[in-house]
Amino acid sequence: MSKKKLPSRTEDYNDWYNTVVMRADLADYGPARGTMIVKPYGWTLWENMQQALDRRFKDTGHVNAGFPMFIPKSFIDREASHVEGFSPELAVVTIGGGKQLEEPLVVRPTSETIIGHTYSKWINSYRDLPVLINLWNSVVRWELRTKLFLRTLEFWWQEGHTAHATYEEAQEETLQMLDVYIDFARNEAAIAPFYGRKSNSEKFPGADVTYSIEAMMGDKKALQAGTSHNLGQNFAKAFDIQYLDNNNEMQYCWTTSWGLSTRFIGAMIMTHGDDQGIIMPPRLAPHQVVLIPIYKDDDQKTIVMETVERISSELLDHDIRVHIDDREGFTPGHKFNHWELRGVPLRMEIGPKDIANQSVTLARRDIVGKEGKSIVSQDNITSIVSDLLIVIQDSLLERATKFRDSNTYEPRDYDHFKEIVADGFALAWWCGEDTCEIAIKTETKATSRCIPDIDLPVKGGTCIHCGKMAKDKAYFAKSY
Amino acid sequence: MSKKKLPSRTEDYNDWYNTVVMRADLADYGPARGTMIVKPYGWTLWENMQQALDRRFKDTGHVNAGFPMFIPKSFIDREASHVEGFSPELAVVTIGGGKQLEEPLVVRPTSETIIGHTYSKWINSYRDLPVLINLWNSVVRWELRTKLFLRTLEFWWQEGHTAHATYEEAQEETLQMLDVYIDFARNEAAIAPFYGRKSNSEKFPGADVTYSIEAMMGDKKALQAGTSHNLGQNFAKAFDIQYLDNNNEMQYCWTTSWGLSTRFIGAMIMTHGDDQGIIMPPRLAPHQVVLIPIYKDDDQKTIVMETVERISSELLDHDIRVHIDDREGFTPGHKFNHWELRGVPLRMEIGPKDIANQSVTLARRDIVGKEGKSIVSQDNITSIVSDLLIVIQDSLLERATKFRDSNTYEPRDYDHFKEIVADGFALAWWCGEDTCEIAIKTETKATSRCIPDIDLPVKGGTCIHCGKMAKDKAYFAKSY
Fold first, then answer.
1. Is the interface score ipTM higher than 0.90?
2. Do A98 and B117 touch (CB under 8 A)?
């Protein structure tokens, strides 16, 4: 009960993050080094995210399937960039059923290779295209420095894998799924990410182009929160995914892949959280409203609980996710802290005074203290609560957008750039060369996050680092 | 297009099964030996099953969580029966991130051990109980003889894991989840399983008691389609899951686990299928109705498609899962066969004659040929279709129940028993000894499937094999 105070975000952001994740019962470490247990409260959040994404995937014509976690090791070697990117991170099964395996199996770090192998069998003619499949599963990457949600040995995600007849279709798909992620981030998670193309050194191993969404965390570092890859014909050639076109000629397919993972939970925590703990965006919150009955004796309890149950049913009937905290042996104050830490967007207190006045007391999680509190009538409580949840959702997005924009600058020169990326995002002209990017990273710890391809004058400025002519502007920031 | 005819079930049941699974696009083998790819049509079926089960789990107070797939190898060794049962089937990761691991990790064959380890950390006092958690994931067992859905290296399932303060509560949970599986089988999958307690030799490694549902397949063999285990204090003692009771004394918890897997898809195929292919129970069918437009030229097509689209929207608005097969270049006859093979419960044909008569032609999948066809008015088409889907669902359950009952007998003597289990189920008195069960298996290939604990006279009969006094009756059958 008497747990020590949360670390404050300004004093030690890292400690704050680790403490809230554990103490809010979102996740825990598993017994094998670096693995994660997502606890029921965290998993319910993930289920809500899955539903919001899955609906968007199905609306854009995708279907789900289930693919094996085991991939013959030789598959990884077939695409040159892919093997280079993933080989160091593989978990390898060498023993099965008590016997040494002739060919070791890797536990999928991502499924492009087994998808490539399979699509080459499934796709024969242009009539079979496009193939639009998504997988919900977990993948394994042997990370050395782990952090719950952000980087663990195994994590949960979705990976979309599509095959098309033309480059144009594949590019359209890649951008469509980037849009889906932006829409999900904004309208479900109340996160306003920057988005754009990744630099050459930051793109997915095996992609022609990677697009990403990049969110600004509370400590002004960037977090890559979703990626969409145009894989060109790289995997089609490595795995022989060909189709007979309508001129009866064999053509290689154009493929894409795109993914968003439980890492995104970390992004939500670090976007919205405050020194009291987590703040869940109402649309994804496991509990949208927590109802706290307040009473001093059994008589009061009987009367209070009657109203609590009635209001809870009304809200549930309108698909509002309500939780009644009727635990015995805990003070209301303890319960307030408990649910503040866990980020429930709206708290409803009902005590004898509320019963007498036919009112309830509401407390917004996003506005701490008295300013966030209001006493409202029990009449129309459902519409009051629904409206307020929308207000909270909008206000979280507005706050996140403002925070992002007020910490993003266009640098005058490289000294200014260094100053900016020490504590924010820089949007800077850049020559696009790997060497400049490496030098910037060494000198400032910031990397290019994404290239927004926004409307730019035909002639660009000059690279913030080397001064050469630059075609692109990119966001630079320190990142997770 | 010109695929050869399906094998008939009577000629070669095994060949029939393998052929329909592949040809109906439910599943395929993965590149690593014995692994399975569940294709979109099969995965949609699994998603519908997941929803129907998950709703029941949540209604009975359970929440979902995510646990790691990797378990330290030493965990498996802690519970004596468990290690004996699962050791021969393990997939072992020995290399991670390019290095030999100090302690190998097994890919979970089931999660009792990692759950035990974790619950021992999470549970402190009686206030923390019960813990009611379910996981949706995949598990790996190194099977040598594989068959799609029935036995593959990796399969998808749910595994529930609960911890309780008393034996009674754990037993109540175990039986409650058995009831959930029976209810799901009957009311969603139209399967009428027998159910009861498993014999000592057939129970889960580490359980005190295992209960199962056992369905009769079209070849009169049994398929275990779901299990619920009372684990007693076996895992609580092996993993030190203790709680402080309200007298301030430490007590071991009582735990349960229960699971149902993609194997159940095999049970549905082999319960309802016929020589034309699969028959999907309407409540779980990916497509409940397939709409086939019939026309000879573009003018007819325009008129027909208008009605097809209108009726499709009407049905969709009432949450009926409709699919329009408007593929060009395929005859209606080809489409009929295509969807018959895939088991869509109801086919709706709309041609120029239907347009003229304001009618549609319906064909039930469960009644082949003219008897299953009817011409109905387009007015009230939604209620006609909903009603018919219920009729089909009920009729599949009735047919499966009749088939089961008309192939289950109580044997007069052991000769009669042998005759029965050669082609059906026997419900026989049995002494309960392992030795008798082994002898029966050797002599007849049949094993005890479950002990129904039905109302029996206080004094039992005599064992069908050894003639000794018997307390129990058990179902015996050859099984998958």
1. yes
2. no
